[in-house]
Task: inverse folding
């Protein structure tokens, strides 16, 4: 027996192997190495467990155990009992039965090995979730098992305090039945996500849409919870009027909802700055491979172009790129609450080893790793679609913002994003992506991704009658065109952010503005930012106002064979002193705003400028030398917008 009765044992490295038990009665053990115990471990003192523990006997914890980043492995060949503890990483292996003899919390990863049974007799295992991490269950061996008594898995999902929509599912099934009866309310949506009507800070949320007898909160009659109708391709309110309730409807893994999350339940639905909340659900987790067909319990909708809303069935992230699928698009569509004012759709498409994401900006909240608790759309491409989600598709990739992105693997692309100003902050509303490769086709194929329209602003690429979020094409050639479709523009001003990656410079892309009758040359090396103004003139918000045309660098483009390309010349460029010299050509005379923004979109100068139509040299005097970097000079009025990228050194 290794006994610690008040001294400090510091295991800095290496391994202590103790064939007996460890009894830590009142001292402190600091372990950053490893401890292997063959029999029992009793802790009534303090253990700082940054290292690993291998325990062959029972575990009793009546003291303080700080898990740190270490892993505790219960690997005895015989039955083991595990007392109440918060673990970071915990492994149950070695065969036989490992029984929870107290409530267990896991903050990182729970692993269940081959031939091992995890018994939740009368205690719970909680998978904790915070703003930085959500605990997960790793791939469960086929010969492993979980048994339940009154004990359950409690899956948490942290959600920031923002009034936004989410596509959301439960990581546990609260009841196997389709409906509940009186006395079973604790197993319902109301009993879990609504905290049984309680108002504890940072727990549960408000769900509206019906009568209190049906479980709804009565602050408004408007629905905050929706299901998806594949027939109408619309969300349907989960409301009393539609025969639904939250008090007798259980939560099911894989069943996803579209839900407006108001924050926790301590404030009203009208609170502009709600608290963060944690949605908890108590029940059984799903293990083993899951196959979805048109006849599975959660069926796929058949027919070319028909969508199905699913939820991640596991208490773990999964990798979309590895999921086997038949007669399904290579794309999934998720919801990013960071887009626009209430959120918007993000398109994630996997082709070979490349994952394309649209909008593509570096700040989008979704990627190929579908998080636990995340809902997503799939699309059938023919009859008899099949999707299999396997234990081996589980991954450790945590994405804190799903409820940001990996870059495509060195593929040529042009991204078109639409932004607007929100109290001085540029907000990404939506975007579309064109990807170029010799193996792609200019026709619409399974490699392209359809556009699911947002309630607010939308950006798509039109290919005939198809609107695409991701358009995969051959490398651009002379006179190739990307027809942009930009809709639902309700604000007076937006910024088109257009940038390229690894596009061949043999042809130059130009943004054609049919409203202003201008061509704007797009840099293939810098981010292009074009301010667009929306007026009462319908042509200013026409969905087909913009397109990108590719031409030889020396070519002169016109819109009607009589319009010369406007140009701003800046000299010298890079600028060196406290003055910007420029010359205009092909620009109508009139009153303009002269605007200078830095590469972050922050405004440096905004002043009235009267242009007399001459080719005379103009200049801007600066109050101080600009820091080295990239800047964007714009000359704009209500109907015209001319821009030039300049450098300062």
Result:
């Amino acid at each position: 027996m290794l006994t610690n009765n008040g001294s400090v044992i510091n295991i800095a490295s290496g391994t202590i192997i103790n064939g007996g038990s460890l009894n830590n009665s009142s001292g402190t053990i600091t372990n950053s190495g490893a401890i292997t115990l063959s029999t029992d471990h009793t802790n009534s003192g303090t253990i700082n467990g940054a290292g690993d523990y291998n325990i062959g006997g029972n575990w009793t914890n009546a003291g303080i155990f700080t898990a740190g980043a270490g892993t505790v492995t219960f690997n005895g060949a015989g039955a083991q009992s595990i007392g109440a503890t918060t673990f970071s990483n915990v492994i149950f292996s070695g065969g036989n039965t490992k029984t929870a003899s107290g409530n267990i919390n896991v903050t990182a990863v729970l692993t269940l090995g081959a031939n091992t049974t995890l018994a939740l007799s009368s205690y719970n295992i909680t998978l904790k979730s915070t703003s930085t991490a959500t605990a997960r269950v790793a791939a469960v061996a086929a010969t492993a098992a979980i048994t339940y008594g009154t004990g359950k898995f409690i899956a948490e999902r942290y959600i920031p305090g923002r009034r936004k929509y989410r596509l959301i599912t439960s990581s546990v099934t609260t009841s196997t039945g389709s409906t509940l009866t009186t006395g079973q309310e604790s197993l319902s949506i109301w009993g879990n996500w609504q905290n049984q009507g309680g108002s504890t800070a940072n727990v549960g949320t408000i769900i509206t849409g019906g009568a209190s007898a049906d479980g709804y909160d009565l602050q408004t009659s408007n629905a905050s919870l929706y299901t998806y109708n594949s027939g109408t391709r619309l969300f349907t309110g989960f409301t009393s009027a539609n025969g639904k309730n939250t008090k007798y409807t259980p939560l099911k893994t894989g069943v996803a909802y579209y839900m407006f999350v108001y924050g926790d339940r301590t404030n009203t639905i009208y609170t502009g700055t709600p608290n963060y909340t944690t949605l908890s659900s108590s029940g059984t987790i799903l293990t083993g491979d899951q196959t979805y067909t048109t006849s599975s319990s959660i069926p796929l909708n058949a027919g070319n172009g028909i969508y199905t809303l699913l939820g991640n069935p596991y208490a773990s992230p999964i990798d979309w790129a590895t999921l086997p699928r038949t007669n399904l698009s290579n794309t999934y569509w998720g919801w990013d609450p960071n887009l626009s004012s209430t959120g918007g759709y993000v398109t994630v498409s996997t082709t070979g080893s490349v994952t394309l994401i649209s909008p593509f900006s570096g700040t989008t909240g979704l990627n190929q790793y579908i998080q636990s608790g995340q809902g997503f759309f799939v699309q059938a491409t023919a009859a008899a679609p099949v999707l299999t989600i396997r234990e081996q598709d589980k991954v450790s990739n945590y994405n804190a913002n799903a409820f940001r992105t990996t870059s495509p693997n060195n593929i040529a692309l042009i991204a078109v994003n639409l932004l607007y100003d929100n109290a001085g902050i540029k907000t990404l509303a939506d975007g579309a992506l064109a990807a170029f490769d010799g193996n792609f086709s200019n026709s619409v194929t399974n490699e392209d991704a359809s556009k699911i329209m947002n309630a607010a602003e939308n950006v798509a690429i039109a290919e005939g009658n198809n609107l695409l979020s991701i358009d995969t094409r051959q490398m651009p050639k002379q006179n190739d065109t990307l027809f942009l479709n930009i809709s639902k523009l309700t604000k007076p001003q937006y910024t088109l952010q257009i940038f390229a990656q690894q596009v061949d410079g043999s042809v130059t892309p130009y943004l054609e503005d049919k409203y202003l009758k201008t061509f704007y040359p797009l840099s293939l090396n810098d981010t292009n930012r074009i301010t667009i103004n929306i007026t009462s003139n319908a042509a200013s918000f026409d969905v087909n106002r913009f397109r990108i045309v590719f031409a030889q660098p020396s070519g002169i483009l016109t819109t009607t064979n009589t319009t010369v390309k406007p140009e701003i010349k800046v000299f010298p460029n890079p600028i060196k002193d406290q003055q910007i010299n420029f010359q205009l050509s092909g620009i109508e005379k009139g009153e303009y705003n002269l605007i200078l923004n830095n590469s972050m979109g922050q405004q440096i100068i905004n002043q009235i400028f009267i242009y007399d139509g001459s080719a005379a040299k103009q200049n801007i005097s600066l109050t101080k030398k600009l820091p080295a970097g990239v800047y964007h000079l714009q000359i704009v009025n209500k109907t015209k917008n001319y821009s030039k990228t300049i450098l300062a050194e």
